Each structure stands twice: as structure tokens, then as C-alpha cells.
Amino acid sequence: MASGWTGLSQEVRCHILQILRLDGCKVSRLATVCREWQTELERYNFARIRVTPSRLVDFGSMIHRNRALVEYVWFCLELDEYGCTKCAPTGRTLTQDEYEEAFSINDAGGYPITTAFQDLFSVLSTWDLKDNLVLDISIYSPSDSKHWFPYLTFMPDIALDMLGDGMEQTIPNKVYNDPQHGWRAVRARMVRSVSTSPGDNHYTSPAVLLPEMEARFNKNLKRLVVFENFNQQYPVIMHQVLSGDVLSGCVSHRKPTPAVSRMVGLASLNLEYLAASFIVDASHFFDVEPSWEWPNIRSIVLTSSLLTPDQDPAKIEVMLQAAAAAAMKMPQLETIEIWNGRRGLAALFKYQVFRNKQEATITWRGTWQLTMETIFNRGLESRHRSLCRLQTQFRSGTSGRSCYQVSR
Questions:
Q1: What is the DSSP letter of 160?
Q2: Which of 154, 180, 245, 294 has its CA 20 to 30 A from that of 109?
Q3: How far, CA to CA in Å, does 382 sit from each of 19, 351, 374?
Q4: DSSP string covering 206-224
Q5: pLDDT class for 230, splitting at 50, 70, 90?
Q6: Residue 127, Cα to own-chain centre: how many angstroms?
Q7: Would 168 be classed as within a structural domain?
Q8: How far separated are the first and last CA of the chain, in Å rounded?
Q9: 400 vs 347: CA distance, rounded Å
Q10: What is the three-class DSSP state of 241?
């Protein structure tokens, strides 16, 4: 085998290895063929790794020799399966205890979720990270796709053609017809891939996790992206399925808590890039301690529930003033984006610095008109005028858009 393999040209050998990687077979078994195969296939196998809580104990030792090859870690927390009131035997009314048991969610495989995150970051904190490392986190239960959420798949946040060993798509495309759970064929939808941070329908408070995670962050961590999807159709579907029963406490949009926003803000002090959507509100994030500074931050992207047409403009003004005050403690800042979006509504406030031109722009885009002149003149401009001697000029853009140019 060796003589025949070495007799092939380098181009042909590389092409064969590429075909093997795309063939769908477990290429990890082929690494024992010869030394060259081992070298090439290990570079592929270890580039993207799937980690479960049960493997955390040996995670460090398992990848120690090839740690430099790791570019992407998918931390996969699979929760226990749960029951469903709609799938329960009919003929009698469920008791309160049975309802609670049906909807209860336990930790991942008997492994406490908080402990799993602590152990993961304890391992990652020992790595000497010279290059970029992406951490993707999925939290889900196998029961999700069996009952109320059949269209959800939980896959790593990479393109489908980049999936390696053990990362195959497990749920095929199909039409869903399950009226009992609110899914009818004429209304079926399909999502190819979902990978969210706390999960679409399971919630572990970052106020608990972030302090532990922040203490274990490697000092080389420069980018943090936290995204929590919230599907507005869930409460509607549940309301219909439960025959119109009132769902107390089930709101149509996520209401972030100040404590979570504060913890994310604390974790961002040494970052260069932060994006936190829906789980954080910009109005809470910028309500910071006077001593907080961001010496390295270049870009911040946040959502805010204040950006709605029926909101009091004075509250929006207070938030933007707080954002301006925080920006003065960000010497490397290039962009701040505050946005909001849901069905029938979209809004974006953007502050962008052009250092080579010694100017900045403030842009508003939305499906509704925000009177930026008043907010800008009374809020942002007054703060910057005394500190940066900024001059402002207002010009009207296209419908739903206003742009302010700020020159130093």
C-alpha cells in the first residue's frame, strides 16, 4: 500500500484525501493507514470538535497532542427527555403533579449545567490560544422534535458542507402534520439548522453562569457573541392548542433582566467585539458603573426593546445618552449598533467612526419615524461638544432613514 501510494503524484493524493473527507465515512478510522494519512486527516478531524458533558473529564488529555489544530468547539448539552400532556393517555384530567412532571426539564445527562460550563471553561482557560477559537453551544432535549418543536434541528453553527465526523444532520426534510401539537401540513415550516446560545426553548440564567464563565475566560478572548432566539409564534400556537386557555406569564417577546445585561457588560470589559441579542437590553447594558472602561472594544451590537414606535422618546433619549457616555470610555471604538426586530417592526441606531477622515456618522433606519433632531441636539451632541468639540449636520435620507454626520 505504501509503495503504491507514494508512487502517486502529490496532486492526486490530495484529491483522494479530499474525496474521502466528503464521502461521509468516518475518516478517523482511516488515520491508521499510513503516517501521511494520519497527518492530513488529523488536521481535518481536530479542526472541529463535538464535546459533551460526559467527555469533559478527559477532554484536555484527549486533544492535548493536537490542540493546536482545534479551530471550532461545539459544546453539546443534551437534556433528559420529557413528557407531553397532549401525548398522555386520554379519558381523564391530568393532575397538577402530572402537568409539572410533563413539563419538567432535568440537567444534561445527570450532569448539572452550571458544573458543565465551569468544567468546560476550566479546560479552555489552560489553552495557549495564539489563533482564533470559536465556541458554539447548543442546549436541547431529544423530546423537542418529538412534540412541540418538530422543525427544530440542533446543529453546530457552521455550513452544512463543513460538517465533520459525528456532525451529520440527523433530522431530514419533511412535511409536518401533527394537529395535536399545533402543526398542520398546510402551515408547516422547515428550519435547516438552529444553533442558539441558551437554546430556543430552554433557559439557564446567564446571571448564574456568566460570573463563573468570566473568571475562567482565557485572557486572549476577544469576541463574544450571545444570541437568544425568541419565536413570537410559540405563545400563539400554545394558546390555540390549549383551546384558548390563558397562558399567564407567556409574553410575545423576551423581556431581558437588568442583572443579565450587567453580567454581560462586566464580561465585555476586555473584549474587542461584543454582540448580544435579545438576552441583553442596551438600556440596561449602558447603565454601568462609573469605573467601567473598555480599552480594547471596537464594535458593540445590542438589541433594545425601547426601539418601538409606541415607546416614550424620552426613554430612548436616556438610553442613547448613556450609550454616548459609555462610548467616551472606549478609545478604540469603531461601531455601536442598537437594533430591534420582530414581526412588523425593524429599527437600527448606528454610530460609526471613520478615524482616517476624523469624522463619525449617526444613522437611524426603521419601519417607523424617530425624531432624531431633538434627541441628537439635546442628548448626544451636548455630551460630545464639551469633550470632543464635535460639529453636527443633519441631512434627510430615504424614507425611514435619518443620518447625522459628525466631524471632529
A1: G
A2: 180
A3: 62, 16, 11
A4: HHHHHHHHHHH--TT--EE
A5: low
A6: 23
A7: yes
A8: 69
A9: 9
A10: helix
Question: In this structure, are residues 197 and 137 in contact, taking their beta carbons and an 8 Å threshold?
Answer: yes
- The rounded distance, in Å, linking the Cα atoms of 309 and 347 is 9
Closest CA to 165 of 55, 31, 59: 31
**What range defines the domain where residue 299 resides?**
222-408
Max CA separation in the chain (angstroms): 79
One domain for residues 256 and 316? yes
**pLDDT tens column, 265-316:** 888 888 999 999 888 899 999 988 888 999 999 999 999 989 988 888 888 8
Grid look-up 462610548 returns: 327
List, in sequence order, every residue forming a beta bridge with 299; answer none if it has no partner.
273, 335
* Same domain for 408 and 310: yes
Closest CA to 323 of 337, 305, 340, 310: 337
User: Rounded to an integer, what distance in angstroms lies between the CA atom of residue 271 and that of residue 274?
Assistant: 7
Q: What is the per-residue pLDDT across 345-363, written as a single tens digit (0 to 9) for each?
A: 888 998 888 877 777 788 8
Are residues 123 and 240 located together in one domain of the fold? no
Q: What are the C-alpha distances in Å from 91 to residues 88, 94, 266, 379?
A: 10, 10, 53, 63
Sheet architecture: strand order including 72-78:
48-51, 72-78, 134-140
In terms of domains, do 402 and 296 share one? yes
d(CA 362, CA 323): 12
Considering its fold, how many domains does the chain have in total?
2
CA-to-CA dists, residue 95 to 28, 90, 102, 240, angstroms:
50, 13, 11, 21
User: What is the helix, strand, coil percentage profile of the chain, to 5?
Assistant: 35, 20, 45
Residues 256, 185 share a domain: no
What is d(CA 397, CA 393) in angstroms, rounded to the nearest whole number?
13
Helices and strands per DSSP (H, E), number in the chain: 13, 11
* pLDDT tens for each residue of 50-77: 888 888 888 888 877 777 878 888 888 8
In a domain, 267, yes or no: yes
3-state secondary structure of 341: strand
Q: What is the pLDDT of residues 92-148, one digit of tens each?
A: 555 656 545 544 445 555 567 778 888 888 888 888 766 678 888 888 777 776 666
In sequence order, what DSSP letters do the residues of 267-313 get, joined into one string? HTTT-SEEEEEEEEEHHHHTS--TT---SS--EEEEE-TT-STTS-H
Report pLDDT digits (tens) over 145-194: 666 666 565 555 554 444 444 444 444 445 555 555 555 544 434 333 33
